[in-house]
Amino acid sequence: MKQVGIAEYADYLVSVGLPSPIAGLFAAVQQNIKDGELDVASSDFDKLIGRPATPLIDALTLIVKTI
Prior knowledge:
about 65% helix; about 70 residues
């Protein structure tokens, strides 16, 4: 896997046939992800299941103990 800058990524998308505006949009989304703008803490899952979610480490520890 090769890491590339956002502009190079957009250029690559255009080179494989994506229209430039769409490539720019995809590149902007990737930049937002890189900048952490989509890293949002949410309690939506807790609301959905009706209780606090079990932290991953706790769930894995329980699974390993029961094996």
